[in-house]
Amino acid sequence: MGSNHPDAQLYPHASGAALQMVKDHEAEQSLKLYSGWFCPFVQRVLIVLLEKNIPFKYIEVNPYHKPQSLLSLNPRGLVPTLQYANKPLYESTVICEFLEEAYPDSTPHLLPKDPYQRAYGRIWSDFVTSRIIPAFHRALQYQLHADGNSEAGFKEVKSELISKLREFTEAMDPEGPFFLGKEISMVDLIIAPWAVRLWVFDHFKGGLELGDEKWVERWGRWLKGIEKRESVVKSTSEREHYLPIYKRYADDVAQSELAKATRQGRGVP
Ligand SMILES: N[C@@H](CCC(=O)N[C@@H](CS)C(=O)NCC(=O)O)C(=O)O
């Protein structure tokens, strides 16, 4: 690992709306977030921090050129990594729930009070990480012209992703606009970074073609609420800078832990 990692050549920092957000979080704070501006797992945590208006310091690191400062906190060398009262935490979903618990007075509350609703949201948050993200990457990394692959195989991986999005959508509160109803909650934020990156399929893979079944209208209504959410907008960089990163996934040459896991049929690292 180190500077010769093939994915290390990245645009060096956030851009667009996210650049301003980074500037707003440059001052010293006891809570520090080690981030990669492009990383959807980081964006989960940023969305929670911004939603709840929790003070934090943003620290940009390149996780493909792992600095010692990151490795000494997180032996996995992945972002997001959080430093809280000088102690490290990692794993985006763990960090998101931790923030909810460690800042009980910061609103909105992202985990519902009702234990059933809370557990229900967790089932679907887990579904995002264990089913939707792997399906997203299998479809994105599929190489039509590779040995053993075919138009039918490509259709199958795209259909798999669509059917996962459908399952997720059909589990939503029918009225919404958010997953559990009127209020935004953790599960909305856990999937948001991938939902706002679905354009990669239009750009690199000829589109997903969700169709016009009933669930698509509900998905669209949910997505509209998420896309314009301030925390989502403020944690998103300019599309042109995501393009070279996602091109490496679309060409299936990315060497990130996630890209390798996808190739080997494993789940999210
Ligand atoms: N399971 C981790 C995944 C985090 C992750 O894969 N982060 C990527 C950036 S988006 C990373 O740090 N990659 C470095 C590498 O692959 O070596 C989480 O949820 O936080």
From TrEMBL:
GST C-terminal domain location: 114-245
GO CC entries: cytoplasm
Keyword Cell wall biogenesis/degradation recorded: no
Pfam families linked: GST_C_2 (PF13410), GST_N_2 (PF13409)
Example GO molecular function: transferase activity
Alphabetical list of SUPFAM superfamilies matching this protein: GST C-terminal domain-like, Thioredoxin-like
PANTHER family: GLUTATHIONE TRANSFERASE OMEGA-1, PTHR43968
Protein name as it appears in the record: Probable glutathione transferase omega-1
